[in-house]
TrEMBL record:
Protein name in UniProt: Tetratricopeptide repeat protein
Residue spans crossing the bilayer: none
Organism: Rubellimicrobium aerolatum
TPR repeat extents: 170-203
Gene3D superfamilies linked to this entry: Tetratricopeptide repeat domain
Annotated InterPro entries: TPR-like_helical_dom_sf, TPR_rpt
Organism taxonomic ancestry: Bacteria, Pseudomonadati, Pseudomonadota, Alphaproteobacteria, Rhodobacterales
Taxonomy, superkingdom: Bacteria
Keywords, ordered alphabetically: TPR repeat
Length: 278
């Protein structure tokens, strides 16, 4: 037998309300229906809603139900999505202080500290997360915190673990490559950026970082990666700056000219730099 549609079920519930015992059942059932609807809306707001819309929703919802941890967590996550990191810190602090908070909440608090450059607080928060809590976000933040402390061995170890805990490692590989780049390990950086692009060919930051790593080795040829015409112009500009920084002025001038020719209507920076070089 097919289940009765929702309106029919509600009709049966309302009929049952004629009896005193049925009235209590009706109220309970309606509360459950409302909770299911609220949970569905919460999921939508946390995943597909516009960031500012999600912030507005969770602000109202958590004010109306201040004891609900899921709504407080939703507000903290929405603030991160909206780029309102300064506001996200106290929101995650409230979540982490809640009696029902989890180790994952403390990891996200550490992430909020990292986004606001509060590295000591981030490290202290991560130190309170037991080693049994193993997640991609935990090790990604551990790697970034170690990076900031110039603890390269720990950073490399955590980046490697994080990359192995996700099916979409492009972002963490890009971060790891940038860490290698800042240390002057240009060959390792180039390999990591290339690997990031193998996983996510459209990640422009990895393309730009790859060009920086090649330029630092005086390799001024663009890498063979997918790129739009505008991306090509920007990468040529990055290579030109790398060449100029290393006093390869004629190469830098030529690369600037290539950048302007590649995208003359979109890339004024290269034109201005070329004019300044005379």
């Amino acid at each position: 037998m097919r289940p009765a549609p929702i309106p029919a079920l509600l009709g049966l519930l309302l009929l049952a309300a004629c009896a005193p015992s049925g009235e209590r059942e009706v109220r309970r059932a309606l509360r459950e229906v409302d909770a299911i609807g609220q949970a569905g809306l919460t999921d939508v707001m946390m995943t597909v809603a516009e960031p500012e819309e999600a912030v507005a929703y969770f602000t109202r919802a958590s004010a109306g139900s201040p004891d609900r941890l899921d709504l407080r967590r939703g507000l903290a996550e929405a603030l991160i999505r909206a780029g309102r990191t300064t506001e996200a810190v106290p929101a995650w602090q409230e979540v982490a202080a809640h009696p029902e908070s989890t180790d994952a909440d403390r990891v996200e608090l550490a992430g909020a500290y990292i986004r606001t450059n509060q590295w000591d607080l981030a490290r202290a928060t991560l130190a309170r997360v037991p080693p049994t809590h193993e997640s991609y976000e935990r090790y990604r933040y551990e790697a970034m915190a170690a990076d900031a402390a110039r603890d390269w061995a720990r950073a490399d170890s955590f980046y490697e673990i994080a990359a192995g805990l996700t099916t979409t490692p492009a972002s963490v590989l890009n971060n790891w490559g940038f860490s290698k780049l800042t240390r002057g390990d240009y060959g390792a950086a180039e390999r990591l950026f290339t690997d990031a692009l193998r996983h996510e060919p459209d990640l422009f930051t990895a393309k730009n970082n790859l060009v920086l790593a090649r330029g630092a080795q005086r390799d001024y040829a663009l890498p063979v990666v997918p790129m739009t015409q505008e991306e090509r112009a920007r990468l040529l500009y990055t290579l030109a700056l790398a060449a100029i920084k290393q006093d390869d002025l004629s190469i830098g001038r030529s690369l600037l000219a290539d950048a302007v020719e590649t995208s003359p209507t979109h890339f004024e920076e290269a034109a201005r730099a070329l004019e300044a070089m005379g």
